[in-house]
Amino acid sequence: MADIFVETAPAKINLALHVTGRRSDGYHELDSLVVFADVADEIEASPAPNDILKVTGPFGTGLTSGEGNLVLRAVAAFRANWPDHVPTRLAFDLKKNLPVAAGLGGGSADAAAVLRLMAALGPALIPEHELMAVAAQLGADVPMCLLSRPCRARGIGEKITALRSFPKLHVVLVNPLVPVVTADVFRRLSIHQNEGLPDLPEPLTRPAQLGIWLAETRNDLEPPAVALVPVIGQLHDALGKAPGCVLARMSGSGATVFGLFGSSTQAHQAAHDLRERWPGYWVAAAPVIEPD
């Protein structure tokens, strides 16, 4: 085995998110169009006497590295299902490059990265549906993060349909570094029964085509999140006015706001302008990861 293995955990972005129902167990049914940006947490693993975790990176401060961390839960779940696939124990270094509690996938993306990393280390191919089933046991967002490609997610997030085509786009992400607790946002949600997303065009290949479709959608969690963190609305307005912005909206339960752009130049200019206006905020510009 090599000394160090590396896997990235790309940022998840909900381009549209409709809340379509509430289940008896408290979970909400959703219908969401999800993409991933080429900006990510990073996980390194190396052989060790025991499975352990160290959390580093600009947003690693304060995160626990104990058994409750979703990364170690993913390791334990993988070993429980495929005990002989990776006989060597591993020391994991989670480099948190993305803000925490930001609506970008967070721990779910990190757990999914661990599943991909460990699956790749063994001699046999693990069927995707089996890996997806383990991902779903870890959390509602983990299956879509396991895919990390444009997809439509329904149910509580576990019903995934990968998109065969998607426009070439760039995204700007801005977060005011105010953590938002998902449960607090859902508690402020006034309507829990909404229609799902409209049917997607086939094939979906042009930014303008996507923009027209997105205009008929929304993020149902944005109004309650703005009530909790009003600056989300300011960031939405600022990005929406940036030259070349196809759409500005909040991702997930916030507080990250994204803007979609047709060119890298426009995206990086918008990111530069945001950094000048809000120098203390986290801002990134990156391509949207395309379908395989």
From TrEMBL:
GHMP kinase C-terminal domain: residues covered: 211-279
Active site annotation, chain numbering: K12, D141
Top-level EC class as recorded in UniProt: transferase
The protein's annotated pathway: Isoprenoid biosynthesis; isopentenyl diphosphate biosynthesis via DXP pathway; isopentenyl diphosphate from 1-deoxy-D-xylulose 5-phosphate: step 3/6
Keyword DNA-binding: no
MF term (GO), any: ATP binding
Assigned keywords, A-Z: ATP-binding, Isoprene biosynthesis, Kinase, Nucleotide-binding, Transferase
GO biological process: one example: terpenoid biosynthetic process
One Pfam family this sequence matches: GHMP_kinases_N
PANTHER family: 4-DIPHOSPHOCYTIDYL-2-C-METHYL-D-ERYTHRITOL KINASE, CHLOROPLASTIC
Protein name (Swiss-Prot/TrEMBL): 4-diphosphocytidyl-2-C-methyl-D-erythritol kinase
